[in-house]
Amino acid sequence: MTRVGCVFRPENPPEELVAAARTADEVGLDELWLWEDCFLHGGLSAAAIALANSSRLTVGVGVLPVPLRNVALVAMEIAALERTYPGRLRIGIGHGVQDWMAQVGERVGSPLTLLREYGTALTALLRGDTVTVDGRYVRLSGVGLQWPPTTAVELLFAATGPRTLHLSGELAAGTVLTGHTSPAATRDATAILRRASAGRPHRVVSYVACALDDDALARTRAEIGSDADDLVVHGTPDRIAAGVRRWVDAGADTVVLQPPVGPGATDFIRAVAGHVQPLLRG
């Protein structure tokens, strides 16, 4: 079954996340996704707020930029959330926007090497292993979590280019594709992921820009810098659901609808959960 989510944009004040999470939980939205964009919300603190203010809602973090965070600290934070709210957390990690990483003095020479080392170590730590590694970027000596998760954590990689897609298919449980990925590009990415995953289950999460009215459509097109209909869904719930199915047919298991920047997060969540999500279930 296709899972449906909404993005709570980090351009919104963090104190508004409480109402958004409660609304998403009440109206039966499958998933609420959070971005760790520099320099807005912290992804894991935002996830804690959303989880604490809901009872059944799945919360996704898409994604944590790995140059910013020591892998042992991230494992500790994820483990604490997963033990407290088991089965409700999806975590994405990625290279990070390179200009932002340079801005904070954390840009690395080989983002792909860092992601491989980091993803491998993080997976092992969350599994409860004691990890010793002396990599180019990740160095741990006998590190193990005192309180590892008691349930499996779904770790996803953010990927766009073919080398990162291949790495994600090889190592991760799933892949997060950005809102600038068309259905055709999603199909191409899914083909790479299937080859790299060698038959193992691999989930695909697609962000899709969504506009509920003409004003939102104009703002969305300005934001993404394109008026191409293969990058945005808009209009009536029937039209939006039909548009979403293009990404589903291309291989997405979860489609996360992304509103334009601006107020109205709870109204957007209510509209998607109440009118679009049921059509995709039907």
UniProtKB/TrEMBL annotation:
Listed Gene3D superfamilies: Luciferase-like domain
GO terms for MF: oxidoreductase activity, acting on paired donors, with incorporation or reduction of molecular oxygen
CDD domains: Tetrahydromethanopterin_reductase
Domain Luciferase-like: 12-218
Keywords: Oxidoreductase
Highest taxon in the source lineage: Bacteria
Protein's recorded name: Oxidoreductase
